[in-house]
Description:
nine-stranded mixed beta sheet; elongated; 17 strands
Amino acid sequence: MAPDVELDTPAAVVDLGRVRANLARWQAECDRLGLANRPHVKTHKTVEIARMAVELGASGLTCQKLGEAEVMADAGFDDLLVSFPVVGGGKLGRLTSLLARANVRTIVDDATLLPGLDSAASAAGKALGVLVDCDTGLGRTGVGSPADAVELAGVVDGYPALRFDGFLTYPSPPGAAAFLGEAVAQAGARGLEPAVVSVGGTPSMWEADQIVPPATEYRVGTYVFHDRNTVAAGAATLDDVALTIAATVVSRPAPDRALLDAGSKALSYDRGPDDGYGLVLEAPGSAIVNLNEEHAYVTLGPEDVLEVGRQVRIVPNHVCAAVNLYDELVVVENGRVAGSWKVAARGRSR
Amino acid sequence: MAPDVELDTPAAVVDLGRVRANLARWQAECDRLGLANRPHVKTHKTVEIARMAVELGASGLTCQKLGEAEVMADAGFDDLLVSFPVVGGGKLGRLTSLLARANVRTIVDDATLLPGLDSAASAAGKALGVLVDCDTGLGRTGVGSPADAVELAGVVDGYPALRFDGFLTYPSPPGAAAFLGEAVAQAGARGLEPAVVSVGGTPSMWEADQIVPPATEYRVGTYVFHDRNTVAAGAATLDDVALTIAATVVSRPAPDRALLDAGSKALSYDRGPDDGYGLVLEAPGSAIVNLNEEHAYVTLGPEDVLEVGRQVRIVPNHVCAAVNLYDELVVVENGRVAGSWKVAARGRSR
């Protein structure tokens, strides 16, 4: 997957063939399981990949923030899940505008947010789908029990412009199936219809069969590119990794030390499966032992040869965080640079 | 420094009065010491702050990457230090273009880079200033001894389009003064004139008097905003911190847990003086114990009250990394939003 030309580095380089293979493999698995595939745009933040996924059969898109959803609505996508609490007057106004041009679902774990969401939907003259966010073990957002989930679902159902659509959790730990199954059963007993049970997470994607039912929908993000973390989790091999950071060796001040021009502003400071900050494919015995903003410190193994000026490719620890640092992705197909994609939702954390 | 209006969060908010005070206080110290002040643009990446610093007396700007220097040259700044090795054909072509419109210095620690730099300068028909990069303890780039530094200086001096300008190090540890003093003495003995001895680092800025001479120039970046790291280093107090991240409480799933809408894509994953990821000013007993891409996990102290919807301000661990995530900075003056600045060099890591 190394491109045929010297790139201006650091650069985020996508292998188009691998992207296509990663998208298709997961869509086939969802088709096999009868599971709706609603991939996350937070990883790639590009319109092009979202379009490829939907063309292959994805049921819609997941956006972590309203800003990402706005970019995707601008590009014509009309089935969007905003998997983050929409809080505050400015956000609610934007939600009204978004609803006017797309079918939107969002999540809640707190009844105090419902009046604002209902008003935002009423202003758009359109129903807002609501999934009750369930904490099945992560300890982040979400209600803590099936009973609480169904209680909140009932409150959602009482608002005229809100439509209770089901339950959502992240990730999908072993206990999630029991939690969600119980919530679905209790909801049914109360006459509520949880049409959607949405779970997610690339690391556990190949165990999705264990959560269907109750799951009806799966959300994955990293699956499109993979990275050191998902390879370490066993969800992919290094041969599946479809995005690398191209970097250049800029200094060799000691026999066992090389400095690359890709630091935390090119790779992110995210932790990986070990204490390193990325894998240099051309120096398999090496470790990126530290980052500054624009430098990677590489400790070389005895067999590693990295002369000054050499271009290398780095598998990042966490590709979602790395992509968000770039305005564009360089697209390589069959070893040749085929173009570039704008990271259209880069920085859209609002 | 809290703004008077509810912001769309997450947002990077600058207190203009504090920026002015931070710039002026350091310029006064440099004036007192007879030290040239060449502040780094990597921290703020804005034209507006660069202009304020130069108007107050800065001798020029430091840019960590060529891309930052190009943005500053576009804005009319004509005295630029690129404090990073310029390596590769694409970069050398850009260096030629940059030289045609600004006075440029860069650094080297390897003689193999000199022919390329000389050709780039020749193509511009203009001399390129070169500082020999010295490793005085960091273990990053740089030559390892005064003798090696002077040896390389002599090689630089032999190239027609290169002008040996002196020595540079980062940061400025206790041994740096002896290293640089020795390099200056040895260079003088060989008939070389190190006009510039450039040192840097915000954490040690208030000990600059201990390195003058041999230092003639000081580079600081974080000083304009400060952050948890420079406060922990004793270079500033919390009352000097001029940039905070505005965030909103979006979930309160447990009595001691709050989730904010500012994660690693809003704060960066940079480590701080403890294991936390930022200081929530409105909840002094709290700790940001974890980040996901769009969530901050806050563990609250017994006195902390953070209801859902509340806007808070976070002092980031490392402000340079945080700023690079934003397209604009919200500028607040006397508690009112006075406008915004474009982060013009955001993402310019090339």
